[in-house]
């Protein structure tokens, strides 16, 4: 009686390209249609083809440059129609001949520009980033998965450029703020005296969001990528970023945020710091060092400004059984590492890691993996999770996650990273998670301590 | 741009960037406002508030980024002078638009430090702006002399005469004073001449005291901004040129292009300010 | 201005979401319409782009290409420059076995012209037996349109690059209709070739001795501003050349002057061959720069489409020649068309022809399309070229220089293939021209060149 349910269709659109975020959104919209049991719209990369085969679809011979539309539904035609409608919505209008869009960064750099933001798949980011460097433009590489030799080469070439501000930020640079402009995942921050050099995107978001709450703004946040301070890359971008902030009249104090660098890089960076006129506060994420919240408080004290209470919203009192274990479901790697250190838990998963983001969107945009993880918790678990607000992030994370929190058997503690200026509305998000039964903290460190106190 | 249905009519949600000068007004509770003037590149809103700036310029990318402006990411709505609007609770309601801010810029960025020699070199290149609106005016001369000598009474007397002097939306007298105020504050601070910053404070208090009754609402708001050191990027660019962090000549050319005589008037104020900083610096003890 | 002194204007490449986030902040952005590179090229691209020599090598190579100053210095009989027993042909190397109809027809015609065979059958047998050595024009500083066959009694334009000192040759244009270069070898074809050998060649040679070297760079620049793109439209350039030559022809060969001038006047494409030699001498100037990914030749033999790259010496990288898409003469249709043939793609290689289509609104009807298509074609070629030609300018684009110097790396990155304007030869030997249009080069010619270039780069890990 339900024979129509078995219908499936796989279409190949040769040479049609859309970015993975767009395709993920279209896939999600199709999956939400009534009568659709499986839907995936994706570029025909090896990974996506194997996922589709696992889903039971038969995939014809394709190139990675082809677009695949795979649907299992009672009405496949309607689903494909919807896919096309969505794809054309996302596609920009066909330009007039005099407005043909540039196809490479090299070509785009013919028009006046100050910065290039690269977010192609990581294996293709090198060409675009090198175009930027060769055009004498600073570049932020949001993409991850770039081989380290390419990163090293880009940063060395940048140093050879005549202009002193050809900074290579990234790869895997999640956040930057330049002259108030938020790039990638960045929060809406007030302008102010604090400059940030960060090898950790979410670490920088935590520090700057807390500063913003305290009424202290930032001049710039220069991300350098998680590997910059490794021995292979040698901190080339961090040292250049430090010099740039030192020369910037708006920057009165610099915060350097990173995981512990390799010893010889640490030495070089310390030497560079020693040559600066601007005072530097370090936030190195390691045992015994101040956590991100403490580092923020040091910054405020160094500026002679008061340290406020960091806002938090305790959970409604409820009758949960005694907690036995802390689990972490994090979107930000650094925040997860900080939580692991403070809460003393080894069960903290970084869903922003390459292993989880290859071929799918970042958990700051796509809540699916964490929604699933929440559903599989025990009533004796304490779940620590971050919700990161700001530009580029999920426009309403509570819409999907708060529901999952409410249904999760576990006790949930949320580290809500964001500012009052963020588009998602910090207070509304906090209220929604609290309503769902979670305790909400704007300081990740405080959230982790709270979680530990529940054991 | 998303469209949602409001209780009464369809609101279009748009976003943009804003000067931090308007942040207090935007973040306070909602107040009524009305359209004061509408141009192709911008709409001036007068907000019923005691806070300053009480006039907010909603502009597009082509317009001058006045220190009281909110820059729209899309086109301006069609409105006419006298239309109702409202500002506050973190948004601006204007015509069909509901406007929220996604980026803040500082209209008063610090200059760093500047030494006396470079300041003197810069002063020489500021001497003759093209035809300021009040060329040869006695009050301008008195203002320049008063500031250079640190003679507060003379400077204040001249400033009072200049507020609202001249035709147009931003009278020349106000532009000269605005250029002077931001220069005394920023260049004074950059050169470490405290007396210049002190003078900026007194002059600022003088011109803003009754500006709302002495000049146009937009010009009064810009004087309030200038008293706090806030200015458009064209003015800040020249100050940076003076401080040696960017080339001075192109910045001056950009400033001179503003308005009918606005750019030249601002430049005249800047020149008076730089000379005052130099001369007050000579008089300070320990120099 | 430095990065930190003002809110940046941002070029965005990749996820549209991040561009949207910037626009929401009222930040001006230039979004790149990025797409993945051609399949199988990602690793080679990274290696080639990482090559420390590349940037400077390409700048040097393309500056040699665009600074060349080709001058028409003479007209010579091919026997003066050609080794005995050798015929030249268009495109990459080809054997008689793999030769297409028009190529075979032209070779037969040359055999008959040279008196090496009594009839077409005898000629075919001799050619199949290897009685004549077949070599690509390109390997002998020569180019030839369509079949491009050059035999000893044909005459060649001689063009010298006054900047770098190179010399290049191209045959004289026979006109349209039944002609050898389209594979026709009937009596009227041979008769015309004999007249060219006995009358036209000597008259032009004598005339050029009187005029002295003619500056082809400035002539081409003028013709572009008069509506030629210098591949499928040469009307303006032919007129300009005729104007330069006419008095000297009258003086040098008073008896034949009327015939000679009438012949040139009757053939709008007469300049094409001189232009091709100019393009050849310019692209040759860009050859052999180690590490350069610049294309220095694109040529077709009717079977294969071949590419040569500056950093890879004389190696050919080929793919199957495609059938042009265009308009057909009379009752001919796509079924009558031979795959793409000829060295005339040297014009595109040097930044003319399809690359300069926006200069030639009149051509778009001929190749099927609208004026906006011509503008779009030229604009798109800036995406795969390394420079804008300083002398060859397009009035309709605000006198922007033509896109010059194809980079195989940019072809692989954008997936955009060079736009080529071309004539279409009939596939049966002896038919002649059947139409004209646009042809799409095979991507593998460019990708295999890129892979070879990657193979020649030392390992970036070392």
Structural account:
The complex is a heterotrimer of chains A (455), B (287) and C (462). Chain A is α/β, with parallel strands linked by helices. Chain A is 36% helix and 20% strand. Chain A has a six-stranded mixed β-sheet with strand order 8-7-10-9-11-12, sandwiched between helices. A six-stranded mixed β-sheet of chain A has the order 13-18-17-16-14-15, sandwiched between helices. In chain A, strands 1-3-2 form a three-stranded antiparallel β-sheet, with helices on both faces. In chain A, helix 5 runs parallel beside helix 6, helix 11 (333-343) runs parallel beside helix 16 (444-453) and helix 14 runs parallel beside helix 15 (426-435). Chain A is globular and about 70 Å long. Helix content of chain B is 46%, strand content 20%. Chain B is built from eleven helices and nine strands. In chain B, strand 4 and strand 5 form a beta hairpin. The longest helix of chain B is centred in the last third of the chain and has 22 residues, at 262-283. The termini of chain B are far apart. Chain C has helices at 16-24, 42-50, 54-67, 101-113, 120-128, 187-211, 216-225, 235-252, 257-265, 270-285, 346-349, 363-366, 371-381, 408-414, 443-456, and strands at 10-14, 29-32, 70-77, 86-89, 133-136, 142-143, 155-161, 167-171, 214-215, 295-301, 304-309, 317-320, 325-328, 341-342, 385-394, 400-406, 420-425, 433-439. In chain C, the strands form six sheets. Chain C has a five-stranded mixed β-sheet. In chain C, helix 1 (16-24) links the parallel strand 1 (10-14) and strand 2. Chain C is globular. Chains in contact: A-B, A-C, B-C. At the A-C interface, helix 1, helix 4, strand 4, helix 5 and helix 6 of A face strand 1, helix 1, strand 2, helix 2 and helix 13 of C. Strand 4 (115-119) of chain A pairs parallel with strand 1 of chain C.
């Amino acid at each position: 009686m339900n024979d129509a349910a078995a219908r499936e269709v796989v279409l190949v659109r040769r040479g049609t390209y859309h970015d993975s975020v767009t395709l993920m959104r279209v896939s999600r919209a199709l999956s939400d249609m009534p009568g659709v049991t499986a839907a995936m719209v994706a570029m025909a990369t090896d990974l996506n083809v194997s996922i589709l085969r696992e889903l039971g679809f038969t995939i014809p011979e394709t190139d990675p440059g082809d677009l695949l539309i795979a649907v299992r539904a009672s009405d496949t035609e309607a689903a494909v129609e919807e896919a096309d409608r969505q794809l054309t919505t996302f596609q920009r209008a066909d330009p007039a001949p005099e407005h043909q869009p540039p196809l490479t960064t090299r070509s785009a750099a013919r028009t006046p520009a100050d910065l290039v933001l690269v977010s192609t798949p990581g294996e293709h980011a090198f060409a675009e980033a090198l175009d930027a460097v060769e055009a004498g433009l600073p570049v932020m590489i949001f993409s991850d998965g770039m081989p380290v030799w390419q990163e090293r080469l880009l940063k060395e070439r940048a140093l050879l450029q005549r202009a002193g501000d050809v900074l290579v930020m990234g790869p895997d640079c999640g956040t930057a703020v330049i002259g108030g402009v938020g790039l990638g995942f960045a929060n809406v921050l007030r302008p102010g005296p604090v400059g940030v050099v960060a090898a950790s995107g979410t670490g920088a978001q935590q520090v700057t969001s807390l500063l913003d709450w305290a009424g202290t703004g930032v001049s710039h946040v220069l991300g350098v990528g998680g590997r910059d301070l490794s021995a292979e890359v040698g901190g080339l971008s961090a040292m250049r970023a430090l010099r740039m902030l030192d020369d910037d009249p708006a920057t009165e104090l610099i915060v350097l945020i990173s995981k512990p660098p390799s010893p010889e890089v640490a030495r070089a960076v310390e030497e560079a710091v020693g040559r600066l006129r601007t005072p530097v506060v370090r936030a190195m994420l390691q045992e015994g060092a101040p956590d991100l919240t403490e580092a923020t408080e040091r910054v405020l004290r160094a500026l002679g400004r008061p340290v406020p209470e960091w806002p938090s919203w305790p959970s409604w009192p409820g009758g949960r059984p005694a907690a036995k274990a802390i689990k972490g479901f994090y979107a930000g790697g650094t925040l997860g590492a900080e939580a692991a250190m403070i809460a003393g838990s080894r069960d903290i998963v970084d869903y922003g890691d390459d292993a989880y983001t290859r071929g799918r969107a970042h958990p700051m945009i796509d809540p699916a993996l964490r929604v699933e993880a929440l559903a599989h918790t025990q009533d004796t678990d304490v779940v620590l999770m971050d919700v990161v607000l700001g530009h580029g992030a999920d426009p309403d994370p509570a819409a999907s996650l708060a529901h999952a929190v409410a249904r999760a058997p576990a006790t949930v503690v949320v580290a809500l990273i964001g500012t009052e200026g963020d588009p998602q509305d910090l207070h509304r998000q906090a209220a929604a998670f609290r309503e769902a039964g979670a305790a909400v903290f704007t300081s990740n460190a405080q959230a982790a301590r709270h979680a530990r106190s529940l054991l | 741009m998303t469209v949602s249905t409001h209780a009464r009519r369809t609101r279009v949600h748009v976003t943009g960037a804003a000067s931090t000068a308007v942040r207090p007004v935007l973040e306070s509770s909602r107040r009524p406002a009305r359209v004061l003037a509408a141009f192709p590149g911008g709409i001036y809103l007068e907000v019923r508030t005691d806070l300053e700036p009480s006039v907010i310029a909603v502009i597009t990318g082509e317009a001058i980024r006045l220190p009281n402006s909110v820059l729209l990411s899309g086109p301006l709505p069609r409105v006419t002078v006298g239309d109702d609007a409202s500002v506050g609770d973190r948004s601006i309601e204007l015509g069909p638009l509901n406007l929220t801010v996604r980026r803040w810029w500082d209209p008063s960025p610090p200059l760093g430090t500047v030494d006396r020699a470079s300041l003197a070199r810069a002063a020489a290149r500021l001497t003759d702006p093209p035809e300021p609106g009040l060329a040869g005016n006695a009050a301008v001369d008195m203002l320049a002399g008063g500031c250079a000598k640190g003679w507060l009474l003379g400077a204040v007397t001249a400033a009072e005469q200049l507020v609202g002097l001249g035709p147009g939306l931003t009278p020349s007298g106000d532009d000269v004073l605005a250029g002077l105020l931001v220069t005394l504050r920023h260049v004074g601070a950059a050169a470490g001449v405290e007396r210049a910053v002190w003078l900026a404070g007194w002059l600022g208090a003088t011109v803003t005291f009754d500006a709302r009754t002495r000049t146009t609402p937009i010009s009064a708001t810009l004087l309030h901004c200038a008293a706090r050191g806030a200015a458009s990027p064209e003015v800040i660019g020249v100050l940076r040129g003076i401080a040696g962090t960017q080339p001075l000549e192109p910045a001056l050319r950009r400033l001179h292009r503003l308005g009918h005589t606005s750019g030249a008037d601002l430049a005249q104020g800047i020149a008076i300010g730089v000379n005052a900083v130099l001369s007050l610096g000579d008089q300070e003890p320990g120099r | 201005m430095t990065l930190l002194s003002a809110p940046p204007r941002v070029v965005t490449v990749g996820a549209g979401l991040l561009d949207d986030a910037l626009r929401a902040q009222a930040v001006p952005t230039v979004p790149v319409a990025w797409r993945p590179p051609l399949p199988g090229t990602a690793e080679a691209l990274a290696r080639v782009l990482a090559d420390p020599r590349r940037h400077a090598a390409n700048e040097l190579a393309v500056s040699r290409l665009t600074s060349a100053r080709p001058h028409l210095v003479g007209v010579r009989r091919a026997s003066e420059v050609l080794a005995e027993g050798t015929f030249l042909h268009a495109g990459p190397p080809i054997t008689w076995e793999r030769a297409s109809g028009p190529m075979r027809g032209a070779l037969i015609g040359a055999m008959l012209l040279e008196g090496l065979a009594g009839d077409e059958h005898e000629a075919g047998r001799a050619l199949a037996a290897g009685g004549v050595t077949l070599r690509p024009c390109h390997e002998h500083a020569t180019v030839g349109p369509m079949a491009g066959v050059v035999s000893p009694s044909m005459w060649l334009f001689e063009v010298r690059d006054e900047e770098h000192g190179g010399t290049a040759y191209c045959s004289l244009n026979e006109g349209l209709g039944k002609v050898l270069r389209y594979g026709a070898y009937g009596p009227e074809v041979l008769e015309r070739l004999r007249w060219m050998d006995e009358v036209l060649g000597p008259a032009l040679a004598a005339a050029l001795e009187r005029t002295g070297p003619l500056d082809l760079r400035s002539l081409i620049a003028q013709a572009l501003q008069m509506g030629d793109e210098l591949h499928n439209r040469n009307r303006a350039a032919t007129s300009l050349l005729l104007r330069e030559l006419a008095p000297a022809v009258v003086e040098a060969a008073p008896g034949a002057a009327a015939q000679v001038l009438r012949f040139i006047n009757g053939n709008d494409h007469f300049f094409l061959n001189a232009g091709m030699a100019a393009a050849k001498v310019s692209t040759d100037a860009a050859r052999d720069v180690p590490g350069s990914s610049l294309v220095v030749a694109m040529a077709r033999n009717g079977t294969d489409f071949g590419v040569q790259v500056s950093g890879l010496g004389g190696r050919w990288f080929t793919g199957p020649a495609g059938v042009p898409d265009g308009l057909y003469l009379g009752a001919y249709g796509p079924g009558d068309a031979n795959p793409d043939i000829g060295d005339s793609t040297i014009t595109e290689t040097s930044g003319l022809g399809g690359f300069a289509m926006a200069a030639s609104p009149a051509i778009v009807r001929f190749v099927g399309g609208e004026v906006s298509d011509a503008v779009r074609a030229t604009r798109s070629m800036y995406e795969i070229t390394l420079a804008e030609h300083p002398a060859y300018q397009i009035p309709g684009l605000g006198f922007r220089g033509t896109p010059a110097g194809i980079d195989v790396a940019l072809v692989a990155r954008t997936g955009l293939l060079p736009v080529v304007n071309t004539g279409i030869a009939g596939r049966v030997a002896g038919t002649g021209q059947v139409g004209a249009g646009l042809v799409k080069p095979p991507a593998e010619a460019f990708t295999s060149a890129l892979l070879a270039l990657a193979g020649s780069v030392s390992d970036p890990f070392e």
